[in-house]
């Protein structure tokens, strides 16, 4: 049975940590796009997951126009959008890199990784539908990675008024100085949800302001 894009989205939703990217995701992605080489490269992490990594183009190097485009615009592209076939042969003459497509993984406005695909010469080039699907995939993967990387680690659940896991996430982001709008965007919830959560948290902790809440949680951490 063919892999659908929703199958890939479902696989992303079920990822529990960065180490599961290759195991649960990459084979589905490769099958969906019908490519000969594929991989995911996380720039700031040791958990890089590449399939046949030595054959994946180094798309993040500024000497590569495909990589430059992704770095500068945080948008997916393929070689035919930027270069003529002859120009692409000069950039990358390899037979197994006849066609290349790359998409960005973005967290907090920074490029933290790329999804990389290649097809051998003689295979169909990537088209507008491939690019649209890759764009959707990058959005889902970026959001998932942002969620994994913002799991709170410093605030314990204070007793006798424990905060929920979501409230602890919000508290951690408040401590980082984020506004309600920024917290809502980070956690994929509405600003009103953040506002109502803060009201509940203030009530539980017996405080009336954000700075008081952070100080209270830090005090609970120290005396735990």
Key terms for this structure?
alpha+beta, 5-stranded antiparallel beta sheet, 13% strand, Arc Repressor Mutant, subunit A, Beta-Lactamase, single chain, elongated, 5 strands, 224 residues
- Please summarize the sheet with the most strands: 5 strands, antiparallel
Strand order of the largest sheet: 2-1-5-4-3
Give the helix proportion (percent range): 40-55%
Strand content: 5-15%
N-to-C SSE series? HHEEHEHHEEHHHHH
- First-last Cα distance: 53 Å
- Unreliable stretches, pLDDT < 50, 5 or more residues? 46-61
Number of separate domains: 2
The backbone outline, from C-alpha atoms, is elongated
Give an account of the 3D structure.
There is one protein chain. With 224 residues, the protein is an alpha+beta fold. The protein folds into two domains: 5-149, Beta-Lactamase (2-Layer Sandwich), CATH 3.30.450.40; 165-223, Arc Repressor Mutant, subunit A (Orthogonal Bundle). Helices cover 50% and strands 13% of the residues. Strands 2-1-5-4-3 form a five-stranded antiparallel sheet, sandwiched between helices. The radius of gyration is 21 Å and the shape is elongated.
SSE map:
Blueprint: H1 5-13, H2 20-33, E1 37-42, E2 49-51, H3 65-73, E3 77-78, H4 79-82, H5 85-91, E4 99-107, E5 110-119, H6 128-149, H7 165-175, H8 180-187, H9 191-205, H10 210-223
Antiparallel strand pairs: 1-2, 1-5, 3-4, 4-5
């Amino acid at each position: 049975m063919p892999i659908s894009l929703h199958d890939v989205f479902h696989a992303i939703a079920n990822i529990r940590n960065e180490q599961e990217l290759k195991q649960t995701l990459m084979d589905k992605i490769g099958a969906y796009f019908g490519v000969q080489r594929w991989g995911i490269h996380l720039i700031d992490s040791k958990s890089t997951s590449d399939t046949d990594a030595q054959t994946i183009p180094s798309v993040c190097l500024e000497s590569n126009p495909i990589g430059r485009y992704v770095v500068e615009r945080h948008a997916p592209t393929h070689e035919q959008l930027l270069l003529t076939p002859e120009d692409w042969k000069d950039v990358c003459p390899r037979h197994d890199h006849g066609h290349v497509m790359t998409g960005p993984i973005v967290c907090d406005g920074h490029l933290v990784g790329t999804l990389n695909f290649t097809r051998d010469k003689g295979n169909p080039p990537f088209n507008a539908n491939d690019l649209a699907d890759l764009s959707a995939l990058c959005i889902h993967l970026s959001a998932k990675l942002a969620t994994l990387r913002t799991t709170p680690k410093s605030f314990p659940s204070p007793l006798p008024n424990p905060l929920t896991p979501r409230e602890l996430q919000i508290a951690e982001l408040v401590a980082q100085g984020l506004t309600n709008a920024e917290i809502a965007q980070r956690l994929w919830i509405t600003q009103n949800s953040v506002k109502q959560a803060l009201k509940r948290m203030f009530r539980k902790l017996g405080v009336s302001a954000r700075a008081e809440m952070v100080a209270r949680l830090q005090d609970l951490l120290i005396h735990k």
